[in-house]
Structures are given as structure tokens and as C-alpha cells.
Amino acid sequence: MNSLFSVEGVKKTVFGPGAIEQLTEECKALKASKALVVMDSQLSKTEIGTRVLQILKKGGVNSFSYPEITPEPDPSLADAGAKLAKKNSVQCVIGIGGGSTMDVAKAVAVLATNKGKAVDYIGLGLVKKPGLPTIMVPTTAGTGSEATFTSVFTMRDTKTKGGINSPYLYPHTAILDPELTLGLSPEATAYTGMDALTHAIESFTSLQAHFLSTPISLRAIELIAANLRGAVFNGGHYPYREKMMEGSYLAGMGLAMAGVGAVHALAYPLGAFFDVPHGTANAVMLPYVLEYNFPGDIDKFSDISLAMGEEFGYSDRDTAALAAKSVFDLSRDIGIPRSLKELDIPEYSIPEMAEAAMKVERPILNNPRPVTADVAEDIYRSAFRGDGE
User: CA-to-CA distance for 380 and 1, rounded, in angstroms?
Assistant: First the structure.
């Protein structure tokens, strides 16, 4: 466990049913009478998108809509959003939607005050000065982007994924309204929920975890494991949605504090090479990486197993091994594909993906068990065959 660390984060969190009604008040707290609203094109056509613009209008905040966000966004989307923000002299940026939308919104805010393009800041600590203040409003319980300092982009020309990572990307305000997730489809609920579980498990077992991050990540595991099935199969039941949003937010906090591991490193090439959505890639890879990882920290993986509802095994090792089984069971119950083959990933791409995964250095170095290119290939092949428990 890391013994030297510092903690930063979101300045203000508003949580609860109807929290979205506080949006205008939060804009005014930032002295923002003009705001850029970043959302995807589908959300902009829904009742949620319309409601957000109406809330702002009613409260006297002049809003400019940027409904151009697509899944696995290209950095150019952030560049275009920043131009719109500067053209209209907005004073804050609101990101409402899933992780892609919030990631773009955070990048737009810093590009509005820093020179250059989004690709210039892919890396760690490259942003020179604060951006416009941001308000993040998640409509899924998944990425936890409303709690992190990262904006992830897909560079399709180079078949790579990378993130802008800077403390200046931490949102000023997170508005968490579980009611906004009540209409989320079972499929989207499943994939985004597994994304949140991945963040929780990987931050819990990260070599950078510390005494503040570990209880937060473990609580996230408990909440998601206990409520994801219910949210998938009975999505209109508010208590499930509330607990999932709690779990997702805590998982995002854990991620921000301790980082993630090999699941993310191996998931990135799936998105960069084949446009597999990030949540889907994490969901499919998670149990196979856990099968490899658990001997690296028997105590923590035992804690994961118990947090997910498993009983003590015959030994600590047996208990730790149940973590992967528990994830396989959850994935099967909620309809997650069991293999890369089901995602139409060609087997011949595995060596190239393994090589690309090794270049995602920070997650590889955070992993609780060392990962080499050969190990990455072996995990991919196991995931391709779908031969886990």
C-alpha cells in the first residue's frame, strides 16, 4: 500500500432525488450567467436534455448547447467545444450524460483557457492553468468521470487511447440525481455498472492504494455487487438506482485517488482497434484479469470475494480465488458477453493488442501482479476462448 500520497477532488457534491433542480443555483454560485451545455445527440432529444435547458432558462442562465458528443470521443470534439465556449464567452461548462460526455466537457473547460488542442495535453500534468469551472451531471452509474481528473480520448488515426490527466480537470461541482438513471436500458445499466465495478476493484487492489482510498473502493464494490442485478432487471426501482449511483461515485473517487490496473490497460486496445465501448471492454476483461491477479494480494482479493457476497473458502487462497468466480457469475446473470469472440474480435489481433496494452504504462505499473506482453497475450487468449470459471 502506498504510504506517501496526496488527495484532491471535486469541490462540491449535490446528491439526491431531484438534485438536477439545483443546477441554476450551482451556476450562480460560480457567478456564471452563461453556460455551455455538453451532451450527446441522443440525450439532447430526450426529456432529460430538454429539462436541463428549461431549468437553466427559468433560472436566468443563458445556455449554449453542444450536443455533438459520440461514444469513444475523438479529441477534435473537445477542440470544437472549446471554440464554441470562447465564441460565446461562457463562464462555466456543464457536462450531462455518460463518461464520454463528461470527459469532453472537462477537456472543453481547460481548452477554453489554455492554448492548443486536446491532443497537446494527452499525458500527465501538461495543462498549464485552470480551466472554466465545471458542473458534471451523470446520467449513468458507471464511469465516475464526475469525480476524476481525467478525460479519455480515442485517436483513431494511430489506433491509440489516452487521457488528459490534470488536477485542473477535477469538476467544481458534481450533481448526482439517481432519478436521471431510472430510464436507462437494462443493457446500458449492465455495462456501465460493470465499468464502475472495474474501477472499484482495480482502485482497491492498485499498488497506489492507501488508507483513504481502500475503504472507499471496498464500499463501492459492496454497493455495486448488491444492487447491479436489481438495477438491470428492475430499473424503475429507485433504491437500486440510488445505491448504484453511490457506488459509481465512490468508485470514481477511488480511481482518482489510487488509479486502475491491467483491466484498463487491456481494455484500451479493444476500444482503439475495434471501437468496443469502454464499459463493455472493461466488463469482458475484468474476470480474466482477476483470475491472473488474485495470487498477487490474497488478503485484498479475499476482501473482494466477501464484499461480493461469497462465503469463506477452505483457505485464504480459496476465498481470494472466488473474486473472479463472483464476477463471472454477475456478468453471466446480467448478460455480459463471456468472450472476445462474442465481440467479433479476431484472434490474430491478440499479439498487436498485447503490445499496445503494455504501452498503457501507469495501469500496468499499478497492477497487483506484474504483467508482461506474454502475460497480456495469455489473458487475451483466455478471454477470447471464454474459458474462465
Answer: 28
Please give the grid coordinates belonging to residue 246: 453511490
**Rounded Cα gap, residues 236 and 206, in angstroms:** 34
In three-state secondary structure terms, 93 is strand
Q: Encode pLDDT of 53-89 as tens digits.
A: 999 999 999 999 999 888 889 999 999 999 999 999 9
Residues 6+ apart with CB under 8 A from 274: 343, 344, 345, 349
Burial of 58 (0-12, 13-18, 19+ CB in 10 A): exposed
What tens digit of pLDDT does each residue of 100-128 get?
999 999 999 999 999 999 999 999 999 99
Is the Cα dihedral 359, 171, 223, 18 positive or negative? negative
CA 190 to chain centre: 14
Domains, the chain, in order of start with CATH, read: 12-181 (3.40.50.1970), 186-385 (1.20.1090.10)
Phi/psi-derived region of residue 3, left when phi > 0, alpha when psi is between -120 and 50, beta in every other case: alpha
